[in-house]
């Protein structure tokens, strides 16, 4: 099996029974904030795009690059579709001219002509990607590969059960706006960033250890930030709180925990993977490339400047009545929302900075009051500050997912009172009837389901499944004193009270080993 690195989470897998192109991303994403690193725009995409199968793990724009798919990828390719709850991905593919689809039943092996086997695991909670993320498992001629991508399944047993995996490709770096955009003192930001960076690596080691593949390929990040306004987010300034470590940092951190089987794929690198081993060729020596990282980024920044400027010129739509449009689109969703609105639990304020860089219009999305209105000097739980033109553009293009556009752009700042609230972001990624209904239904089901199984961790008996996204705490749970940490996403819980210390709601059931067993309680948590 041949694996060609094509940048970020993208790769082309070639076998004698056919080729699969995964997640081809080239054009900047999220308001021209993210670019693939290392640069992959100079690859021969005309040739790479002539494939038998196309797999896109999810709709995040650093995976689903509509322009590139339209311009370069063969429309004869059969699209391997994860079993997502909404038809959005298929609709987007159809709009681009793709007509051949294979809807892969979730977690079931599908044998394609010639003996190529695939299995796709779809993750479908409202917090998984834009309502869905997925991983692809491939087997041909006894060689097995897992493209885990940036998906975070609770465990990898469904893949491990299919036999020893030879190549495991997974994310290790950051892909979020936290903590950089928060209005915090620099020292706090650095401390939070460092925690996050450590947690990302810990999670990666855990997945690697779960699967014990012969070879581990760090993929799906980091992106690079080429706009001058975002340049500081690149991990080139010696900031230990930077959440975007690159593949060379992965190799050195992995070595510290005894990892010796890491393989970095640059765009154009080719790995031949067999049951016996892997041999890799690179377009330039990997160490030399990373030693010249700053020069690479600076050259890219100059080359991509016109692309960024052209994008920026398209964002302003002065004719859009922002308050009126937000009311028209968001109020009907507030009316329908039970779980998300209750989970947010307070007003969320948007400060929109005008074209002059000074004037500010403040708009409140009032979740309890179920209305969108001008800010009225009240206390708010969350406040976002961004350029008015970005919101104008989202309204102009009728964007239903503000996470997959505004928030991932990092072109905003944020402040909040109290804990992180996942419902805020879940709501703003569900600005359509279809998505909102799905998310509401998902929370409804999960609130009703009881989770009666308990386990013992240290001095504590706790529910087996994490109250966040059901990670198995026998594997991911660590108890330190009276605190439980679930290492899948790093959420912490105070065991005596059961309170989640990371986010609103999500209470955990727990009692001391030597205490009387309380009656099992499927407590409401939001
Ligand atoms: S499943 Fe996310 S922190 Fe436990």
Automatic annotation (TrEMBL):
GO terms for cellular component: cytoplasm. Keywords: 2Fe-2S, Iron, Iron-sulfur, Metal-binding. Residues 461-515 form the Rieske domain. GO terms for molecular function: 2 iron, 2 sulfur cluster binding; metal ion binding; monooxygenase activity; oxidoreductase activity, acting on paired donors, with incorporation or reduction of molecular oxygen. The keyword Transit peptide does not apply. Pfam families: Rieske, SCP2_Rv3818. SUPFAM superfamilies: ISP domain, Metallo-hydrolase/oxidoreductase. PROSITE patterns: RIESKE. It comes from the Bacteria. This is UDP-MurNAc hydroxylase. It comes from Micromonospora jinlongensis. The lineage of its organism: Bacteria, Bacillati, Actinomycetota, Actinomycetes, Micromonosporales.
């Amino acid at each position: 099996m041949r694996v060609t690195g094509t940048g970020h989470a993208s790769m082309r897998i070639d076998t004698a029974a056919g080729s699969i192109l995964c997640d081809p991303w080239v054009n900047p994403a999220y308001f021209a904030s993210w670019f693939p690193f290392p640069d992959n725009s100079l690859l021969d995409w005309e040739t790479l795009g002539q494939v038998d199968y196309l797999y896109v793990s999810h709709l995040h724009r650093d995976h689903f690059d509509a322009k590139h798919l339209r311009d370069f990828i063969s429309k004869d390719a059969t699209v391997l579709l994860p079993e997502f709850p909404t038809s959005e991905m298929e609709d987007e593919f159809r709009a681009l001219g793709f007509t051949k689809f294979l809807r892969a039943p979730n977690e079931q092996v599908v044998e394609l002509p010639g003996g190529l086997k695939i299995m796709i695991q779809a993750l479908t909670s409202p917090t998984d990607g834009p309502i869905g993320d997925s991983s692809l498992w491939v087997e041909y001629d006894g060689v097995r590969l897992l493209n885990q991508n940036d998906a975070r399944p609770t465990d990898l047993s469904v893949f491990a059960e299919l036999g020893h995996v030879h190549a495991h490709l997974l994310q290790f770096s950051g892909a979020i706006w936290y903590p950089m955009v928060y209005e915090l003192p620099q020292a706090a930001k650095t401390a939070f960033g460092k925690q996050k960076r450590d947690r990302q690596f810990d999670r990666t080691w855990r997945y690697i250890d779960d699967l014990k593949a012969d070879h581990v390929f760090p993929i799906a990040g980091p992106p690079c930030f080429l706009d001058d306004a975002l340049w500081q987010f690149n991990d080139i300034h010696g900031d230990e709180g930077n959440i975007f470590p690159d593949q060379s940092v992965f190799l050195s951190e992995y070595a510290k925990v005894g990892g010796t089987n890491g393989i970095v794929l640059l765009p154009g690198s080719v790995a031949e993977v067999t049951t016996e081993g892997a041999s890799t060729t690179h377009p330039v020596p990997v160490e030399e490339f990373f030693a010249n990282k700053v020069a690479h980024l600076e050259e890219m920044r100059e080359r991509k400047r016109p692309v960024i400027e052209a994008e920026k010129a398209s964002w302003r739509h002065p004719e859009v009545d922002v308050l009126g449009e937000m009311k028209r689109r968001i109020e009907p969703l507030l009316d329908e929302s039970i779980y998300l609105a209750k989970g947010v639990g307070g007003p969320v304020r948007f400060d929109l900075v005008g074209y002059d860089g000074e004037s500010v219009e403040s708009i409140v999305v009032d979740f309890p009051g179920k209305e969108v209105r001008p800010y009225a000097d009240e206390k708010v739980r969350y406040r976002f500050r961004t350029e008015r033109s970005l919101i104008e553009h989202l309204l102009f293009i009728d964007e239903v997912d503000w996470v997959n556009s505004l928030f991932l752009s990092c072109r905003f700042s944020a402040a909040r009172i109290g804990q992180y609230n996942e419902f805020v972001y879940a709501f703003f990624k569900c600005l359509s009837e279809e998505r909102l209904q799905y998310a509401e239904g998902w929370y409804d089901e999960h609130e009703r389901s009881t989770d009666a199984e308990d386990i013992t961790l240290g001095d504590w008996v706790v529910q087996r499944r994490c109250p966040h996204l059901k990670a198995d705490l026998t594997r991911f749970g660590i108890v330190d004193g009276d605190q439980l940490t679930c290492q899948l996403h790093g959420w912490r819980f105070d065991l005596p009270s059961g309170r989640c210390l990371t986010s609103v709601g999500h209470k955990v059931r727990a009692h001391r080993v030597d205490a009387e067993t309380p009656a099992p309680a499927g407590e409401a948590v939001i």
